[in-house]
Amino acid sequence: MDFAEDITTSSVENKELSKDLLINKYLPYVKHIAYRMSINIPTNLVELDDLISAGIVGLIQAAENFDSSKNVQFITYAAFRIKGSILSELRAQDFLSRSVRKKIRELNNTYDTLEKKLCREVEDEEVAAELGFDLDELYNIKKLANFSFVSFEDIGLDSYKDKNEVVKNITCSNKNDVFDLIKLKEISSAVSEAIKHLKHKEQLVISLYYQDELTMKEIGKVLNLTESRVSQIHSQAIYCLRRKLNKKGMLDG
């Protein structure tokens, strides 16, 4: 083996070592992302371990494709890959039954009908009464409806800067990723505007959960609410945002 061949082999070995180090270092981050993405999904419908496994696949892809010469941190690029892989797993499972989808449509239609009739935003109690549901059932259906919102709230990155940096790191073979990022930028702007119209407590929960990354339990301590109540407020806020974006044609479903 000549000197040139030895350098090539060493380079390959170093690349493999670097990839393994990245994967081992960020494995705990996969669990963190999977847990936060599962918050909108009832625990009886999806296994957290399945989401973690999907996230690990995304992490491996990130480690294999990451280009350190580009102006982007690995964790920024990996987050996009991990979240995208978990989202693909959720979509593949398609766990919403026909009856559940029917209830979601009825819920959406009832909100629209009552708002047009009353010329104002309606309260949960009014919608529940119209549908013949108790509030717990209403909140559960909202939580299921929010599954389709995962594509925005959990695959999205923290800022335009992060998204632009990721675009620089994505190769031509990943055109779908670029298209997703462009759509996310448009959605991000629309969401920022929609959040301004949420109730004050809903804005607080959204801010504490997604910006400060507190858990539902921690938010409850800050706001002096039960964890269950915080979860309800979160579901209500996400559902409201989802409906507003749907009306603007920003989301599917």
List keywords for this structure.
mainly alpha; Rna Polymerase Sigma Factor, Chain: A; Arc Repressor Mutant, subunit A; 2 domains; 75% helix
Describe the structure.
The protein is mostly helical and 253 residues long. It has 2 domains: 1-95, Rna Polymerase Sigma Factor, Chain: A; 96-253, Winged helix-like DNA-binding domain superfamily/Winged helix DNA-binding domain (Arc Repressor Mutant, subunit A). The chain is built from 12 helices and no strands. The chain has helices at residues 3-37, 48-65, 74-93, 98-118, 124-131, 135-145, 150-153, 160-169, 175-195, 200-211, 216-223, 227-247. The longest helix has 35 residues, at 3-37.
The number of helical segments is: 12
CATH topology of the largest domain: Arc Repressor Mutant, subunit A
Total of domains? 2
Oligomer: single chain
Q: Say how many strands there are.
A: 0
Structural class label: mainly alpha
The first-level CATH class of the largest domain is given as Mainly Alpha
CATH architecture of the largest domain: Orthogonal Bundle
Order of helices and strands: HHHHHHHHHHHH
Rg of Cα set:
21 Å
